[in-house]
Amino acid sequence: MPKVPSQRQSPHKATQQRIQTSRDDREIAKRQREEEKRIKQDQLNRKKHWRKYVTDHQWSGKPAHKHKKGTKTLCKTKAAELDVLGTKLTSNELGILKYEIRTFNPPGMFFLAKKKLYSKSDVVELAKLKAQTLGVTGAPSSNPGSNDNEDKTIKKHEYESVPGDPPADEIIWKGEHLWYFDVNIKDACLTYCLKPKDLTDLVSKEGRLDLQSVAVRALEVHGGLKRHNGIVIQRRKGDQEALEVLGHHEPLQPYSQELRELLEQEYGQNSWAYNIGNSPPRPTQEERRRTVLQYGPVYKLRVEYYGSDWMWFHGNGRPLMRSTAAVAVTKLQGSRAKLFFPFLVTAISSKKQVKMPPESSSRRKATNPSSKTAQQKLEAEQRRKERDAKKQQRDEEKLRKAEERKEKARRKEAWEDYVKENQWSSNGEDYTHPNQLWTINKGNAMKLTKPQLKSEEVNTLPHEFHLLPALEGEDFERPMKLYALGAVYDLAKLRATMLGVELQFASPGVSRYSKLGLVVKHKYTPPANASPEDPSPDQILWKGEHLWGYAVNAKDACLTYCLHPGDISDLKSEYDWFDLQSVAVRALEIHGGLQRHNEMIIAKRKADIESIEKLIETSSYDGKPLENYSKKLRDFLPRCKKQWSEDLDDALELTSSELRQRRVLQYGPVFKRPDEERAEWVWFHGNRLPLEEKDLNL
User: Fold this and answer.
1) Phi-psi region for residue 273, left (φ > 0), alpha (ψ -120 to 50) or beta?
2) Are 571 and 578 in contact (CB under 8 A)?
3) Which of 118-132, 224-238, 293-307 is predicted least confidently?
4) Is 302 helix (H, G, I), strand (E, B) or coil?
5) Which of 348, 355, 534, 545 has a CA between 20 and 30 Å from the CA of residue 484?
6) Are strands 439-441 and 504-505 parallel, antiparallel or unpaired?
7) pLDDT grade for 9, boundaries at 50, 70 and 90
């Protein structure tokens, strides 16, 4: 019987398949990680681009902007809460848009506050732009009360005037309480004194009504403009009477909760009286005759500004003038009286006579404070002007800071471009600094100024490679970059200039190297008592034998050139440093020329030697000079790796004696210390320079 071949795979083949599967999985995972990384980088780039766009397009707030009539607006809080395509705007992003400043009063207080109103269409467009820039996808949503169905309402604005009324084209339809947004049927009926059945054909699918269409229907139902306005005024008076009888302060029939929330969002208040003391001016008699009045819920509110008296208000914070006599509400007959004044009808049916509460003399005085009110209004106007001035000052400060940020970013970008374009390269050649040039390593070069120089900034300068000796236990030398000290400071000055900042030193001692702010007076005119043997000013060698190439303080300058602080007070720089050559010139002017100055220095050296010798004889000498440099200079000198070669002109072939006769000598503190090589005590002066016989004679 023939063998049936086995269906099982060989172990080797199965292993190869597992390896291949593992490779495929790793490749898929790698591609997924790369895709996630790409998406993340793309999001970061989009956010960076959007932030730059927002920064560059901030609106300064000037000139003052006013929205066109009929523009739907949002306060700043609601504009930030508006969700468009799953995106909301931040306060900084809203700064791009133009806004209108609206002034209002907090409830019960007579001081003005301001808020910013943004065009809703502008907010939506900016949010869409943000979503497009950031690559956000989502479904648009809206806030409650935002009235997004304005275009879906039923509009019937045609009206034919009845005899005795103004023509239809002269009627003012704009309401004194509600306008620019749609309302539900309850608020529409309340505002224009109608019944729901009067408006059934004007209700949209969303349950909203256009206010002007409702106003047209009110005039048609009431029999013209005059009759309609009479009904509204009569209802206001009826509410006043009813509240007086019942002793209530809240409105008898308020707006709907939805409308109250919308008004609160729009005006940022939790009270009816958002606009006390700052309500729109009342229309003239002619305008009032042509205006379609709106009924607003009537209520009372205690106002501190008017002598803590109760005042009447209606609608959304408009003052309502108080009636001076009792109103006979019984003039309104039929179902409309019961509909409009249900509480009042009940109150009057139980009381045959309605009496107004008597007003005390103090109350009457508070109700008509002509002089006091005028003074208070004057003070309020003054406070308003002060607030406006402060607001203008804050706006100017904000604009100035925004301009400063832009200028700072521009300067920083220009400096970064300069650094990238000017990286130094030796082109494969060995670069060496000139002799007697002060050099520092890279670490110290970066620490000289504050803020510190960056590595790439220092790399714009030519540098010399220097090998440090091998440390103990190591058999290799360490490379080090040396930079010219003057070039480092020139770079720091250039950076400060391009960035528009002040050059600051990391520590006060570091500024010794800098020539910034030093008072330089190098012109020398020999005094009248100068020696005839003095060389001409152009042949004098000013370079000092102890201190040179940096600045010193007043103590060290006076010690070095045998002067008093008052002699060099006019040479003091902003960092309290003195230029050595300027001090040397002043020393020659005071001492009577070069020869007399050098004789004074040598005499001081000899006097120190004699004094120290006497101390040595009495075994009371501690090895320190009688007069020493300042501690800052003593700490600074050991770090100076100066090469003590003379700056001579080879063509002149001057002798040492001739050189000393032309050089301005410096006094260095004299001291005596043992020398291990010579096994004897040796005289030194200055920065550990040997004091020899030639230093004690001209």
Assistant:
1) beta
2) yes
3) 293-307
4) strand
5) 545
6) unpaired
7) low
Partner residues linked to 312 by β-bridges: 300
| d(C-alpha 177, C-alpha 155), whole Å | 20
Please give the Cα distance from 599 to 576 (Å, whole number). Answer: 29
- Taking the C-alpha atoms of residue 545 and residue 642, their distance in angstroms, rounded to an integer, is 11
The H or E element spanning position 481 is strand 478-484
DSSP class per residue in 638-697: GG----------TTT---HHHHHHHB------EEEEEETTTTEEEEEETTTEE--GGGG-
Q: Are strands 113-119 and 298-303 parallel, antiparallel or unpaired?
A: unpaired
Residue 479 is encoded by which pair of tokens? Answer: 């490379």
Burial class (CB in 10 A: 0-12, 13-18, 19+), 455: exposed
Distance, CA of 588 to CA of 581 (rounded, Å)? 11
Beta partners for 673? 682
Closest CA to 317 of 288, 283, 279: 279
Token code pair at residue 229: 């306005």
Beta-ladder partners of 482: 441, 464
Q: Which residue reads 């190297």 in tokens?
A: 513
pLDDT value, residue 661: 83
Ordered alpha helix ranges (H), 422-514: 442-446, 455-458, 485-499
Please state, in angstroms and as integers, the Cα–Cα distance from residue 183 to each residue in 75, 188, 547, following that order: 19, 6, 89
HEC string of 335-373 equals HHHHHHCHHHHHHHHHCCCCCCCCCCHHHHHHHCCHHHH
One-letter identity of residue 253: Q
**Apex 640 CA angle, 637 and 641, nearest 5:** 140
According to DSSP, residue 209 is labeled B
Q: Which of 279, 269, 283 is nearest to 314 (CA)?
A: 279
Answer for the pair 551, 512: CB distance below 8 angstroms, yes or no: yes
Q: Smallest Cα–Cα separation from 105: which of 287, 279, 285?
A: 279
CA distances from 637 to 438, 444, 489, 629 (A): 13, 16, 20, 10
Report helix angle 211-222 to 225-246, nearest 10: 90
Residues 6+ away with beta carbon under 8 Å from 580: 544, 547, 548, 550, 551, 552, 557, 560
The Cα–Cα gap between 231 and 294 comes to 10
- Of 317, 331, 343, which is closest to residue 240 (Cα–Cα)? 343
CA distances in angstroms from 289 to 164, 293, 316, 676, listed in the order given: 11, 10, 22, 117
Q: How many CB atoms lie within 10 A of CB 545?
A: 19
Gap between the Cα atoms of 265 and 270, Å rounded: 9
Cα gap 410→52, rounded to integer Å: 12
3-state secondary structure 133-202: HHCCCCCCCCCCCCCCCHHHCCCCCCCCCCCCCCCHHHCECCCCCCCCCCECHHHHHHHHCCCHHHHHHH
Q: What is the rounded CA–CA span in Å between residue 525 and residue 542? A: 14
Q: What distance in Å separates the CA atoms of residue 621 and residue 670, rounded to the nearest whole number?
A: 13
Q: How sure is the predictor about 597, in pLDDT bands with cuts at 50, 70 and 90? A: very high
CA pair distance 102, 422, nearest whole angstrom? 54
**Cα separation of 690 and 698, whole Å?**
17
523: pLDDT confidence band, cut at 50, 70 and 90?
very high
DSSP state of 181: S
First-to-last alpha carbon distance for the chain, in angstroms, is 130
Interval 585-594 mean pLDDT: 94
State which amino acid sits at residue 479: P
Q: Helix (H, G, I), strand (E, B), or coil: what is residue 491?
A: helix
The predicted-structure confidence for 528-550, as pLDDT tens digits, reads as follows 999 888 999 999 999 888 888 77
CB 95 within 8 A of CB 55: no
Contact at 8 Å (CB) between 121 and 113? Answer: no
Give the distance from CA 224 to its chain's centroid: 59
Taking the whole predicted model, whether its pTM rises above 0.70 is answered as: no
